[in-house]
Amino acid sequence: VKVVVVVVAVVVVVVVVVAVVVIVVVLVVVTVVVEVVVVVVVVELNNACRILTRQLRPTPLPLLYRTAEIAPPNIRKQTHGSTEKHKQETDLRSPLFDHSYPRARLK
């Protein structure tokens, strides 16, 4: 009976370890895919701006965005983040509405 319990415990541990490894591999693959997609989107945005503004490849990106009359990606990202934070704090339907954040532990 003790041998069976030990074997079952070992099998459970092996299954858990395999599951954790699979989850880690999936997360790594998803992260790589997301990074590739983001790079492709930014490249396509730059190409679209170049086509619309008729600018050549050597044109610096900040000037390209200014000529196309759109905000640079870092400003758009910051604006989107602050908008989402505002929604989370004020929208009753948000799952994070009235959520109390933990205190910072590091100084």
From TrEMBL:
Composition skew (Basic and acidic residues), residue ranges: 82-92
State which residue ranges cross the membrane: 12-45
What this protein is called in its record is: Uncharacterized protein
Q: Where is this region: Disordered?
A: 72-107
Q: Which UniProt keywords apply?
A: Membrane, Transmembrane, Transmembrane helix
